[in-house]
């Protein structure tokens, strides 16, 4: 006999009077069914830990069951679970849940990094959506599959998969504000991963789990249809075990990066820097957008409303097909773009009366200037355009029209939402839009994306001059620099000791090494060209020093050290440049190979440039 939800007492699961038998489903091995009247919705709160088994649970259309107990023990146990289309099960608990056979045609949400969701079969069935927020499904020792589901990774989430079982699609969504990246974790054997991956950006990574195969390199190549193939090659001893991800789509404000293999402390490997840019592109609450009926606050708009767009010299009307909404908490790194700190474009910053009042957008949101779209982060001058660090939590909104459009926000021209697959329907109010082809920035944007320094710097300097003419004082804010900026370059030894250069001549730095030292770390200050040169430089790598040749005097002869140029390990290193030099990130490992016993040695490093000189690398290396 089924136990049905009647909800006559409250919205609490553990009020027995809310069930048709006046007993909890856990009190008897039975089938629990939660449905709702066709004219309404039902939200049920599950706020206690109970490890007793529910025989089966069906969550119906327009029903949301939220598990939010603070217990760290097992809080939920269901032998079988079915989430119907339109139904939602949300876990926001540090406790664990055991699920039997799972069929998701609605939505499963997991919000807590401490949540442990286990299934009997290590897999999920159904055609619905799984949304992970600062959480994970699976583990390095428990890999699963996603059936025909769509998975959304938000806020530093990880999906552990047992090969090519990624479901209907995987979407990289909202980035983390703590630096933890959204990740897909795969075993290290040969596979062609054909699941569509959408929205991949600078906050996304592919992890190769620990095993006997060592990734050698990674590359991203265009499929000439708006998607890319990511290939991960292994060392020559394990050639033929390549992993290929064949249907990768980048985020709307992302471009191909320089994929880099990173060695992790747990023995796994991460492929990072696959793409540039971030997925957080939107207007803050309170922004006034022009419509045919006058200006309206963005939060008051809904699908079906008309909005004004600029096409050439004309202002036309277009229908809004979708509105998206989410909440953001800013990070604490001190880097506004990384922290998703909102950009405040002050009234009149762009031109007389434009914007008409202060405009607040996310760092990656693009403004229409000089015939192209420029991310707001590249315009921040510390004067008339600033990161507003007084705002640490905010609501933001996406406005989507059928075609990518130029909207009029506070009188300034900026972009509508471009759906390149980096937002799930669940994050766009569950509204679905069917298109004949996937949208891309290159083919479908209303204006081209401008990030080249030659174009952006001229616009940036013009806005700085305008700010000065309006009475704004030049910015005295310094970019954050990590590490040993004030103490200079030194070598960190494994025992914690530090060595400074005994002699510096030009770009040659000479260090005396004690006996028994076969590994050192090159430590220096580190910063991003984006910060030290200017935000008009779209290079956000954390750079320390650029190391050229490294030679070691040991055992009576000089030996050229090449591990930093040839090693698979990228512990503290960026990509090799021109085959002859490589940037550190401010703390890079240098292996010295076998040392002569009971002897000191000399290490000579050619330091071609520091992070503040990143723009002159080629000239200094010549």
UniProtKB/TrEMBL annotation:
Q: Which SUPFAM superfamilies does the UniProt record give?
A: Hedgehog/intein (Hint) domain
Q: Which Pfam families match?
A: Hint_2
Task: List, for all copies, the residue spans of the domain called Hedgehog/Intein (Hint).
Answer: 281-420
Q: Which domain of life is it from?
A: Bacteria
Q: Which Gene3D superfamilies match?
A: Hedgehog/Intein (Hint) domain
Signal peptide interval:
none
Q: Quote the protein name from its UniProt record.
A: Hedgehog/Intein (Hint) domain-containing protein
Organism from which the protein derives: Gluconobacter wancherniae NBRC 103581
Q: What is the lineage of its organism?
A: Bacteria, Pseudomonadati, Pseudomonadota, Alphaproteobacteria, Acetobacterales
């Amino acid at each position: 006999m089924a136990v049905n939800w009647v909800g006559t007492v409250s919205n609490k699961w553990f009020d027995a009077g809310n069930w048709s038998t006046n007993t909890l489903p856990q009190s008897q091995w039975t089938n629990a069914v939660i449905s709702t009247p066709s004219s309404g919705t039902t939200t049920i709160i599950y706020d206690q830990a109970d490890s007793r088994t529910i025989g089966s649970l069906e969550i119906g259309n327009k029903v949301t069951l939220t598990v939010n107990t603070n217990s760290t023990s097992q809080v939920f146990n269901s032998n079988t679970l079915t989430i119907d289309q339109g139904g939602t099960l949300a876990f926001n608990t540090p406790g664990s849940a055991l699920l039997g056979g799972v069929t998701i045609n609605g939505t499963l949400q997991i919000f807590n990094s401490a949540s442990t969701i286990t299934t009997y079969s290590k897999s999920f069935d159904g055609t619905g959506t799984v949304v992970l927020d600062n959480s994970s499904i699976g583990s390095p020792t428990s890999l699963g599959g996603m059936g025909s589901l769509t998975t959304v990774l938000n806020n530093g989430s990880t999906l552990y998969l047992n090969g090519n079982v990624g479901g209907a699609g995987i979407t990289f969504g909202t980035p983390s504000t703590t630096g933890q990246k959204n990740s897909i974790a795969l075993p290290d054997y040969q596979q062609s991963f054909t699941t569509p991956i959408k929205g991949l950006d600078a906050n996304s990574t592919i992890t190769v789990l620990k095993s006997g195969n060592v990734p050698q390199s990674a590359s991203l190549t265009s499929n000439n249809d708006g998607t890319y193939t990511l290939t991960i090659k292994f060392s020559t001893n394990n050639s033929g075990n390549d992993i290929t991800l064949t249907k990768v789509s980048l985020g709307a404000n992302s471009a191909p990066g320089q994929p880099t293999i990173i060695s992790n402390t747990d023995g796994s490997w991460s492929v990072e820097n696959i793409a540039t840019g971030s997925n957080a592109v939107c207007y803050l609450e309170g922004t006034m957008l022009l419509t045919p009926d006058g200006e309206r606050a963005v939060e008051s708009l809904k699908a079906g409303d008309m909005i004004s767009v600029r096409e050439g010299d004309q202002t036309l009307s277009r229908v809004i097909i979708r509105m998206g909404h989410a909440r953001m908490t800013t990070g604490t790194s001190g880097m506004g773009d990384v922290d998703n700190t909102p950009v405040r474009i002050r009234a009149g910053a762009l031109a007389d009366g434009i914007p008409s009042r202060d405009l607040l957008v996310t760092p990656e949101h693009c403004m229409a200037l000089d015939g192209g779209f420029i991310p707001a982060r590249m315009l921040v001058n510390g004067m008339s355009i600033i990161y507003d660090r007084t705002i640490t939590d905010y609501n933001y909104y996406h406005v989507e029209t059928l075609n990518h459009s130029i909207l009029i926000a506070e009188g300034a021209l900026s972009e509508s939402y471009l759906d390149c697959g980096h937002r799930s329907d669940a994050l766009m109010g569950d509204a679905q839009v069917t298109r004949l082809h996937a949208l891309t920035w290159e083919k479908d944007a209303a204006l081209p994306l401008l990030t080249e320094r030659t174009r952006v710097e001229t616009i940036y300097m013009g806005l700085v001059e305008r700010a000065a003419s309006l009475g704004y004082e030049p910015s005295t804010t310094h970019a954050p620099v990590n590490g040993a900026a004030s103490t200079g370059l030194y070598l960190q030894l494994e025992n914690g000791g530090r060595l400074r250069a005994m002699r510096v001549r030009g770009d040659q730095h000479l260090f005396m090494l004690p006996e028994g030292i076969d590994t050192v770390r090159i430590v220096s200050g580190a910063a991003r060209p984006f910060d030290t040169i200017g935000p008009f430089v779209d290079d956000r790598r954390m750079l320390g020093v650029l190391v050229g040749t490294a030679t070691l005097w040991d055992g009576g002869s000089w030996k050229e050290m090449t591990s930093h140029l040839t090693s698979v390990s990228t512990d503290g290193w960026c990509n090799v440049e021109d085959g002859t030099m490589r940037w550190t990130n401010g703390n890079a490992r240098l292996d010295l190979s076998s040392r002569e016993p009971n002897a000191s040695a000399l290490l000579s490093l050619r330091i071609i440039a520091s992070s503040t000189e990143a723009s002159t690398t080629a000239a200094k290396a010549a």
